[in-house]
Design goal:
It contains three helices and seven strands. By secondary structure, it is an alpha+beta fold.
Length: 144
């Protein structure tokens, strides 16, 4: 919720064409609000995944950083907490772009993730930023 003193500016992400709401509070804190697309608009291979404060980012070999696809209405991001949807959704999400970067978003209630990817997400530090390389993702997928 914005206060009357917050200033907002509407921007557009050139890579996705989606709107971005940039706000600046009276204390100088800048925040960007952007919807995630259903699929990244690239054909470059996944290079690494970044888990960051409930958001999942996908970096591709060409250096671009994409907010991971999300299903509309499923919430603002993925939680690393909890036993079911919180950790299984990112684990399911991490499996898909290894084969096809344009794979669609996943729903937390659609099947179980591979055990190795689930453990990788479960063991990632919470409330911070964690980077997982493609090699680590592939090893975790093979392990489980």
């Amino acid at each position: 919720m914005r206060s009357d003193r917050d200033e907002a500016e509407l921007l557009y992400a050139t890579a996705t064409g989606l709107p971005v709401d940039r706000t600046e509070s009276s204390h100088g804190r800048r925040t960007l609000f952007a919807p995630a697309s259903r699929r990244p608009r690239t054909t470059s291979r996944l290079s690494e995944v970044v888990l960051s404060y409930g958001a999942v980012w996908v970096r591709t070999d060409d250096g671009d950083l994409w907010l991971a696809p999300q299903v509309p209405g499923e919430g603002p991001g993925y939680s690393q907490g909890g036993d079911t949807g919180g950790k299984s959704t990112p684990a399911q999400l991490l499996n898909r772009p290894l084969d096809h970067i344009t794979s669609p978003a996943v729903r937390y209630d659609r099947g179980a993730p591979l055990e190795g990817l689930f453990k990788l997400v479960r063991n990632a530090p919470e409330n911070t930023m964690s980077t997982i390389s493609r090699v680590d993702l592939e090893m975790a997928r093979t392990a489980g």
